[in-house]
């Protein structure tokens, strides 16, 4: 096998974004992420401060969303969200583009908004993943977003929120890897529900996945590697 447990675990952003999760379930999810030593917990924004407290002392990063899930917030609101998330201990921010503006071809608006959040976050030494929501876009729009994110220095481009009509399609992942500079990583979100699919997207150059079935994926990884 060409992978280790740590190599797989550190690909996973444990997703705790379902709006019906309770405080207790969010806390349990954070503790599960520490137990399995994943890359990060991506959590509902209001719980980020508590999440960062739970993760303190571990190698798991606290992360949250900006403009989630529809991307239609004003730029000022997205910037305010980012400021709050950074103050609450967020180390990685998953930001949804303004899908309407992408579909409208208003690339100056899209570029300006992304720059506002990326520059602020980078000034604080933190990272940004830009969510495209590919299920609503054509290939030209996806490529244009990859090019903009590359020029702005985004840390990741990400397929989807997991709450649209589609998720991490193989062709989209190939396209995003092909049209992004090597400095920009690719995150797959939506539909990575087992180890085999995670390994498939890994082979395409994906370095992170959003997953809610983290325990199942990593238990299977341990089983195949002969770990207890």
Keywords:
globular; alpha/beta; 8 strands; 8-stranded parallel beta barrel; TIM Barrel; 228 residues
Describe, in plain words, how this protein is organized in 3D.
With 228 residues, this protein is of the alpha/beta class. The protein has a single domain (5-225), classed as Aldolase class I (TIM Barrel, Alpha-Beta Barrel), CATH 3.20.20. Helices cover 47% and strands 16% of the residues. The protein has helices spanning 5-9, 23-36, 48-55, 75-87, 99-104, 107-123, 139-152, 170-179, 195-203, 214-225; strands spanning 12-16, 40-43, 61-66, 92-96, 127-131, 156-158, 185-189, 208-211. The protein has an eight-stranded parallel beta barrel, surrounded by six helices. Helix 2 (23-36) links the parallel strand 1 (12-16) and strand 2. Helix 2 (23-36) packs parallel to helix 3, helix 4 (75-87) packs parallel to helix 6 and helix 7 (139-152) crosses helix 8 (170-179). The longest helix has 17 residues, at 107-123.
Detail the poorly predicted runs: none
Characterize the main sheet: 8 strands, parallel, barrel
Give the overall silhouette. Answer: globular
What order do the strands of the largest sheet run in, or round the barrel if closed?
1-2-3-4-5-6-7-8
Q: What would the CATH topology be?
A: TIM Barrel
- Output the radius of gyration: 17 Å
Q: How many strands in all?
A: 8
Give the SSE string: HEHEHEHEHHEHEHEHEH
CATH architecture: Alpha-Beta Barrel
**What proportion of the residues form beta strands (DSSP E)?**
15-25%
Helix content: 40-55%
How many domains would you count in the coordinates?
1
CATH superfamily: Aldolase class I
Indicate the mean pLDDT. Answer: 98
